């Protein structure tokens, strides 16, 4: 398992311009590379994870199956595949859907400014979450999820709320 202490700083075209320690990048709001993985099963349910309460931001919020930051030497898809296994104990083929940039202030005086690469995968396997990363998980119908995100956005991470409509449009 690769330690993810640094992030890859990028320009808006996703060209690497350096790297920085993860917390420093989030304190300064530097644009950096990230990925988000959305997993579905054969019932068209989406796998959600509740972030561990101990996370440096977004603890206890619901989000997509996993997310993180690739390292300078990694391909984004390889990093996403590895992280899905690490966080949720799952392996499946991942397909790249799209990338988008977002910037939002979060708790603890941190700023998420990411060029997020979004992947989807499909599996019916049972997750075995890493309790250091994941508080809880659930499979949920897309229809219920859309209503709950609309009615209770504070329960979900910002990047999940931003990516969800795009993901649902493309599947």
Automatic annotation (TrEMBL):
The UniProt entry annotates the active site at: 67, 114
EC supergroup of this enzyme: isomerase
Pfam families in UniProt:
NUDIX
Q: Where is the Nudix hydrolase domain?
A: 30-162
Q: What is its EC number?
A: 5.3.3.2
Q: Name one GO molecular function term.
A: metal ion binding
What InterPro entries does the database record attribute to this sequence?
Idi_bact, IsopentenylPP_isomerase_typ1, NUDIX_hydrolase-like_dom_sf, NUDIX_hydrolase_dom
Keyword set, alphabetical order: Cytoplasm, Isomerase, Isoprene biosynthesis, Magnesium, Manganese, Metal-binding
| SUPFAM superfamilies xrefs | Nudix
Q: In which pathway does it act?
A: Isoprenoid biosynthesis; dimethylallyl diphosphate biosynthesis; dimethylallyl diphosphate from isopentenyl diphosphate: step 1/1
- A GO biological process held by the record: isopentenyl diphosphate biosynthetic process
Question: Organism's domain of life?
Answer: Bacteria
Gene Ontology CC: one annotated term? cytoplasm
Family the UniProt entry places it in: Belongs to the IPP isomerase type 1 family.
* NCBIfam families reported in the protein's UniProt record: IPP_isom_1 (TIGR02150), PRK03759.1 (NF002995)
Q: Identify the PANTHER family for this entry.
A: ISOPENTENYL-DIPHOSPHATE DELTA-ISOMERASE
Q: What is this protein called in UniProt?
A: Isopentenyl-diphosphate delta-isomerase
